[in-house]
Amino acid sequence: MVAWRELLDTLAEAGGMVTSLADGVPAIDVAEGFGHILNVLTGQFDRAALRQSRHPVFLPGITPVRKFFFDNPDTDYDIAVLGGGSRYRIYGNRGSCTYLSFCVYSGMARDATTRLVNLSDRDIHFSPGGDFEVILSPVEVPGDWLRIDAGSRAVIARQYFLDRQAEVPAEYRIEVLDETTSDPPLDDLGFARAVRTTATFVKAATSLAAQRVEALRATPNRFVETGEHGPYRTPDNDYLACWYRLDEDEALLIDVQPPECRYWGVHLANRWGQSLDHRTRRTALNGRTAMPDANGTVRVVVSGTDHGLPNWLDTAGHPEGWVLFRWLLADETVVPHVEQIKLTSRRQGQGAASRTGSAE
């Protein structure tokens, strides 16, 4: 089948982007690059096949092992593809998660941007028991409403958690309001369309991940505001990113006084924008789990070895990678201060470390 061969050719091309990095980059980056391609592939085919469906459904976009686009360990992302319908209803119960929002995205443009409209729990009306309803349509309706048009491709539901053990997740469903019939089976044309859409997205996602690295790799160990932060950002977040590069005996000391905000978090990610293992290692902290000092300043330590310091983040065998902060619904954007230090002993790490560089 022509479409199948095109998919294999595109996967080979994406793989070529990965293997082209083999010289001068850690071997782990190459292995994870192929894993990134498979992660994007497995997630995208489901959504591509649903594009012609008139019966949308929320499916997990990210799991603890399938990750991409700078996923946040404290966030659940559910994605519903908007097919042929013109009006939809999202309904459910708020639960007690730290933050809940629904964000509608257009297709990704050639410059890797999307158009979006967002509705968060600040503006949604909830019943005393937490029930809610949001209408998606081209024409505004009374109540909670999100505008969609012919270019709208998907709606992403986000739930942020500061303490997953204590908070109750929101529950929600989406349904089409237009008259509809059952979906037809996947035929040759539908399969070809889904495969080509998937192939295009895999190639674009791999290229975008590589471009992001090159933008910051020349000035490591310093934070910058990322502006729009890629195609699937949420407008309620301010994002700050740092490309770290450390020798085995080095660490980053990151000092920051978080702003007033609904949520803040920091986590590590690999070259491809996938969060590091947060199931079996500590690679992320948030406003609940981080330990501030008496003045409210948080010192985060990024290194490959645990020296017994508070707020340590494990690089998990990655000598290079991303450190990302999110300020959600913040009063201001605060840029962390960074010092690159030697950590030849625990004592040095606690105060007598030799400095190898610093950045604002």
Polypeptide structure, described:
It contains 4 helices and 19 strands. Mean pLDDT is 90; it is low at 345-360. It has helices spanning 2-19, 27-49, 188-217, 346-352; strands spanning 59-60, 75-81, 88-93, 99-106, 116-120, 131-137, 145-147, 152-160, 171-176, 223-225, 237-245, 250-256, 263-269, 284-286, 298-303, 312-314, 320-328, 337-342, 355-359. The protein starts with a helix and ends with a strand. It is globular, with a radius of gyration of 22 Å. It is α+β, with helices and mostly antiparallel strands. The protein has a 5-stranded antiparallel beta sheet, with no helix packed on it. Helix 1 (2-19) packs antiparallel against helix 2, helix 1 (2-19) packs parallel to helix 3 and helix 2 (27-49) packs antiparallel against helix 3 (188-217).
Work out the strand percent.
25-35%
The number of E-state strands comes to: 19
Low-pLDDT stretches: 345-360
Distance between the termini: 54 Å
Number of helical elements? 4
Determine the structural class based on helices, strands and strand pairing: alpha+beta
Q: Assign an overall shape.
A: globular
Q: pLDDT average, as an integer? A: 90
Q: How would you spell out the order of helices and strands?
A: HHEEEEEEEEEHEEEEEEEEEHE
Biggest sheet record: 5 strands, antiparallel
